[in-house]
Write a structure and sequence with these properties.
Belongs to the DegT/DnrJ/EryC1 family. InterPro entries: DegT/StrS_aminotransferase, PyrdxlP-dep_Trfase, PyrdxlP-dep_Trfase_major, PyrdxlP-dep_Trfase_small. This is DegT/DnrJ/EryC1/StrS family aminotransferase. One of its GO terms (molecular function) is transaminase activity. The protein is of the alpha/beta class and 373 residues long. The protein has two domains: 9-103 and 111-244, Type I PLP-dependent aspartate aminotransferase-like (Major domain) (Aspartate Aminotransferase, domain 2, 3-Layer(aba) Sandwich); 247-372, Aspartate Aminotransferase, domain 1 (Alpha-Beta Complex). The chain is 40% helix and 14% strand. It contains twelve helices and 14 strands. The strands form four sheets. A seven-stranded mixed beta sheet has the order 2-10-9-6-5-3-4, sandwiched between helices. A three-stranded antiparallel beta sheet has the order 8-7-11, with no helix packed on it. A hairpin with a 2-residue loop joins strand 7 and strand 8 (169-170). The radius of gyration is 21 Å and the shape is globular. The two termini are 25 Å apart. Residues 59-61, 64, 85-86, 88-89, 131, 157, 159-160, 181, 183, 193, 195 line the site of pyridoxal-5'-phosphate (PLP).
Length: 373
């Protein structure tokens, strides 16, 4: 049997009765769209973070897009972010009509290099979009300083950072608004698509509710400015509501896997150049993915296939080098750290129900493969 980086079937086995009860709850409620489960999940998710408002949306990409739009971002504006991210971060910026502007990432934690942001600000800059990639947070203090100095809004991309903390504060509470994805692989995953935006600002959440509902001010009202149909599905909301009560346990499970990898792979880090993930001071990592790094990455991945282990790369193509963003004018070499990482990083299997013997299989195979290189 092949081992993949992610698999939800063991979780489904463990939680089947509760998940099916969630489906039954919605099907028998008499309200299939924007009903009590969406409302309940929005309240629970806001409460978990100690934030005033939450608007459920249909996926994480639209959480970023509508989040930016609700913060006033549109055509002609620039949004500063990173190219070492899931392409949807940038697709969402593009979807608002604004222009993505990239800064490089740091060589230690692979996250936005906040020291480069001030130089990227132009008179058109409207927003900063830090991505809390892999499960830990971007250094926010310098970002907030730039935002204050230039009157910019900050939207956090929290799609990979549910429950992560930064100097004790939860991801999702560190900017003007925060976008989450509940794509099934995420730390809090639905059984299908889902997303949400958190904010303390009542006018921002009002705008989000309008944007996700065709642009209508209220349910049977008229459209003044057209919006989208981007509602969080009622069934997914009920599933997420149940799973939110287990989020801290999922995170503990991920951390236990990370500890076992760190112990089992420490020798390869010292003697065979395998770079393990580092947690930046002040961060509590939730390990959405466990990213390691080696200059001979492609050979390692190929050799591991022989052990029945199929790995992923998050991400092999920096967004600024994709054909779809060629019009932004970045050439190879413009983001050197991001580009080098894309050639060297790969992700080990990581999810809370990953069996101990499979973790050990991965560790043992890596030892054999790296020694034989
Ligand atoms: C998954 C992800 C998204 C997009 O979320 P979807 O729910 O798949 O639309 C956006 N940004 C980041 C960083 C992600 O990992």
């Amino acid at each position: 049997m092949t081992t993949y980086v992610w698999d939800y079937l063991a979780e489904y086995q463990n939680e089947r009765a509760d998940l099916l009860d969630a489906v039954e709850t919605v099907f028998s409620s008499g309200q299939l769209v924007l009903g009590p489960s969406v409302e309940g999940f929005e309240k629970d998710f806001a409460d978990y973070h100690g934030v005033r408002h939450c608007a459920g949306v249909d996926n994480g990409t639209n959480a970023v897009k509508l989040g930016l739009q609700a913060l006033g971002v549109g055509p002609g504006d620039e949004v500063i972010t990173v190219a070492n991210t899931a392409a949807p971060t940038v697709v969402a910026i593009d979807g608002t009509g604004a222009t993505p502007v990239f800064v490089d990432v740091r060589a230690d934690d692979y996250l936005m290099d906040a020291t480069q942001v001030a130089d990227a600000v132009t008179p058109r800059t409207k927003a900063l979009l830090p991505v809390h990639l892999y499960g830990q947070c971007v250094d926010m203090a310098p970002l907030r300083k730039v935002a204050e100095e230039h009157g910019l809004v900050v939207l956090e991309d929290c799609a990979q950072a549910h429950g992560a903390r930064h100097h004790g504060e939860l991801a999702g509470t560190l900017g003007d608004a925060a976008a989450f994805s509940f794509y099934p692989t995420k730390v809090l995953g639905a059984y299908g698509d889902g997303g949400a935006v958190l904010t303390d600002d009542e006018s921002v959440v009002g705008e989000l509710r309008r944007l996700r509902y065709y642009g209508m001010e209220d349910v049977y009202y008229v459209v003044q400015t057209p919006g989208h149909n981007s509602r969080l599905d009622e069934v997914q909301a009920e599933i997420l509501r149940r799973k939110l009560t287990r989020l801290d346990r999922y995170i503990e499970g991920r951390r236990a896997v990370a500890r076992r990898y760190a112990e089992g792979l420490a020798g390869l880090a010292t003697s065979h150049g395998l770079v393990l993930p580092s947690t930046t001071h002040g961060n509590d990592h939730v390990y959405y993915v466990y990213v390691v790094r080696h200059p001979r990455r492609d050979e390692i991945i190929e050799a591991l296939k022989g052990y029945g282990i199929s790995l992923n790369i998050s991400y092999p193509w920096p967004v600024h080098t994709m054909t779809g963003f060629a019009h932004l004018g970045y050439t190879k070499g413009s983001l050197p750290v991001t580009e080098q990482l894309a050639d060297e990083i790969f992700s080990l299997p990581m999810y809370p129900t990953l069996a101990l013997d499979v973790q050990d299989k991965v560790i043992a195979a890596l030892h054999e493969v790296l020694r034989a290189l």
